Amino acid sequence: MDKINVTLAQMTPKLKDKSYNLSQIKNAMEEANKNQSDLIVFPELFLTGYSVGDKLNEQAEKVDGPSINEIKKLCKSLSLYTVFGFPESGDGETNFISSALIDNQGELLGLYRKTHLFDQEQKFFESGSNFEVIPTPMGNIGLMICFDLEFPEVARSLKLMGADILVIVNANMDPYKEHHYIYAKSRAMENEIPVVICNRLGQEDDLNFCGDSLVLDSWGNELLSMKDSEGIETAKLPLSSVMDSKMDYVFRRKEDLYSILTDSQHRE
């Protein structure tokens, strides 16, 4: 498969209203199906809204929970792959910010738990402990979530693990719009890999979510840029391209010089 149709659902969820958000997911997936999309991507914690920490006991679900099962049925009936964000209920009282990849037969192919928690997220969620690259007929998909984007080690690790495309679910807010625009293009260019990043819109308390969802090819070229427009848009994404052999960043790494990156005495 040389190209795929990728749909971004840059929308505004209703906080703590899973029924409403599931209806939005259904509508967006039906629109993607009409556009002959292969993959649709939703924002971080879209199932519940972002500021859900104080209601996690009510809102978080396990991977076989009712909302996730409903999305599985939609994937099968509409023959769509999807990546979406939700609060995952783990063992005991442990909860994670997670993204799930479901295939076009309604099967859960993989799950990623956010490893880099931002600000107040640390009060309510645990960090994940693994990076995930998931094989699919579209290529190997590496999953990331929002703040992960700001750590170049994450994208590089996924590339070294064999990822062919990076899919990032986002709940990025002002004043960090420019940060993520620059980082998304950088992650694509420095790893010579396509990047799909889906952010949300709307306001929760003092948080203003800033959109700017993107589909970038492996050169960092913008194939889709949604700015601050609410909607469901599709782009054709090449999964491979002829790269500049003078660059070849992965091959030209000097691994013996990078031990400082994991040396604990340099963490502060």
From TrEMBL:
The keyword Hydrolase applies. Residues 4-239 form the CN hydrolase domain. Coiled coil: none annotated. Transmembrane segments: none annotated. Keywords: Hydrolase. Gene3D superfamilies: Carbon-nitrogen hydrolase. One of its GO terms (molecular function) is hydrolase activity. This is Carbon-nitrogen hydrolase. It comes from Lentibacillus halophilus.
